[in-house]
Design goal:
Length: 225
């Protein structure tokens, strides 16, 4: 009885390796006699990215997804520390520190700590999170730090960060909210002129914001004092 041929499964490693061998055969003189080291590094980098970095990112994404489900359900302790085979945000951040998911896990861990009123731990995790210069995430992270400092009783630091976040965002979506928070803290500190400055900034710069009309009541109240 003749042996039945079995078609091999699609294998990206074999394809990439074959392509690399073919490239080498075509250009081996150039590789051996000038520029070879550079080409070798490029090929090695491509292989490392495809067969280490990409699978690692995929595993990180899968791990953080499971922790996110626990977070959404409100089980912050399990989302933070894990459950059974499910990694928590702290473990994802540690195990996959070089990935986007590992970085994002620090932000989620900070939120979990904040939800359970562990504000110093939340602040410590938040400081490990990299915003990568994102125009929306960066000011939001600064504002979150401000709120955490407020919870810790450091209102001077809190208001400074909220004002910084409003300036960095400079849009109708985020800035007015941060300015109102800053204004309220200024009032608590007895700095009514600074509070008024925050509320008036909303009226002057963010006419299309949801807080535009709300700012009037704060201005009227303080102006009458």
């Amino acid at each position: 009885m003749s042996k039945k041929k079995v078609k091999a499964e699609h294998n990206e490693f074999d394809e990439t390796l074959a392509a690399s061998v073919s490239f080498y055969e075509k250009h081996k003189n150039a590789i051996l006699y000038g520029g070879g080291a550079v080409l070798a590094i490029v090929i090695a980098s491509l292989l490392v990215h495809q067969f280490y970095v990409t699978p690692r990112n995929n595993r990180a994404d899968e791990s953080i997804f499971m922790a996110q489900q626990l977070f959404v359900s409100g089980d912050y302790d399990k989302a933070l520390n894990g459950q059974g085979d499910t990694l928590g945000f702290l473990a994802v951040a540690d195990r996959y520190s070089s990935t986007k998911a590992g970085n994002l896990a620090h932000l989620y861990a900070a939120k979990c700590y904040a939800e359970t009123e562990k504000y110093q731990e939340a602040l410590d995790e938040l400081k490990k999170f990299s915003t990568c210069g994102d125009a929306m995430v960066s000011p939001a992270t600064i504002a979150m730090q401000g709120n955490l400092y407020a919870e810790l009783g450091d209102n001077e630091k809190a208001v400074s960060l909220l004002v910084q976040a409003a300036k960095k965002a400079d849009n109708n979506t985020l800035s007015p909210s941060y300015l109102i928070q800053a204004g309220q803290i200024y009032e608590a500190l007895g700095k009514n002129d600074d509070a008024l400055g925050c509320y008036r900034q909303i009226k002057e710069k963010y006419q299309n914001s949801m807080q535009y009309a709300e700012a009037d009541k704060y201005i009227e109240r303080l102006s009458g004092k």
